[in-house]
Amino acid sequence: MWDSLLINARLATMVEGKAPYGAVESGALGIANGRIAWLGSLDDLTARPGALAKKIYDLDGRWVTPGLIDCHTHLVYGGDRAGEFEQRLGGASYAEIAKAGGGIISTVKATREADADSLFAASLPRLQALMAEGVTTVEIKSGYGLEPEQEIKQLSVARRLGETQPVTVHKTFLGAHAVPPEYKDGRNGGAEAYIQSMIALLPRLKQEQLADSVDAFCETIAFDADQVARLFEAAAAEGLPVRLHADQLSDGGGAALAARFKALSAEHLEYANEHGIKAMAKAGTVAVLLPGAFYTLKDETAPPVAAFRKAGVEMAVATDCNPGSSPVSSLLSVLNMACILFGLTPEEALSGATRIAAKALGLADSHGTLEIGKVADLVVWDIERPAELAYRLGFNPLNLVIRGGKRLQPTPKASLQACTTGDP
Ligand code: NIG
Ligand code: FE
User: Fold this and answer.
1) Fold for the domain defined by 68-360
2) What residues does ligand 1 touch, defined as CB less than 6 Å away?
3) Which ligand is nearest to the CA of 140?
4) What is the C-alpha separation between 315 and 360, in angstroms, rounded?
């Protein structure tokens, strides 16, 4: 007997190579022990629903997708940067503000000043906003501590969010996000010494399971390729996978660098070059597109989407939720931006927040598609076709969320009336 069975469902399985969206019309999906136990056409059920499962959800033709995955966020931080938003509207650039000591460093100050409890309280509403749109897995980076104990504080808050909220949290160590004031302009050995201090932290992060992957910001205003390479070598020695903020503001060879270390993903990539794209394809490195940052910074150079397609680089889509370049807590809005600003199809955008996002987090075997054996993280939507998830801005058609086989109570709009127990 399954624990539950969804009937009269339209399943956007997001499995590649089948119908658009991997769709199964008139579908059914059985769940047992938190996993997908069966899925297929309703007609292929071997007995009447009530004989197969303890609980039946009659979805009345509603669409079901995998739980959404936001594979790139910086959502644990203190303070805000609305003042810089005003400065940028007045003509200052992101890089200029950063060079003048604002930008990431101003969030570092606010994050250091916050204790773990207030950091948790400040971050929770951002996470809840994502979850209200069907996000069941989220990546959260550190990178606003820039000092061992402060980085650990941020990662611990990310872990606590995952332990207390019904969401899977992938924790990424981004100690190499910016050079902190203590090491700025050659102080205390400069960026070199700072990177060494972050490398020295890796064994502890691994041992205390505070990081699932390691990230860095490779850019003229952050770290150069040699410094990133040293960090990545040390991460590999600890068995930690890597990912990279690459080629966001300029072509720094970030795409090729990420590929050289078989990175799970390279992110932003507005200025990625042809050589780097080919290397990413070969390494199986996912391109994580972040249209929220492109939009907020009023970038004019879009990432080379056509070249990614041609080379066979898979594209994920994420919010980049952070206080500076992407103050965005809506993955659905980002799906829309990915289509409007970067020219993705709605199907590519949704794949980028499900199957391909799972790959970017190293979770392709367990998450990201509706397939037998995978974790039963799924979302029921009040939509007529999957493209609607990317079509609107500022409208949330979520009906209910099932995570690890359990229906989340209460979902913000749990309007599904058709839920019955026993035979419908
Ligand atoms: O992904 N590019 C670097 N890091 C973030 C921005 C962080 C910030 O501005 O606070 C990003 O855009
Ligand atoms: Fe980022």
Assistant:
1) TIM Barrel (3.20.20)
2) 74, 103-104, 107, 217, 245, 248, 293, 320, 322-326
3) 2
4) 9
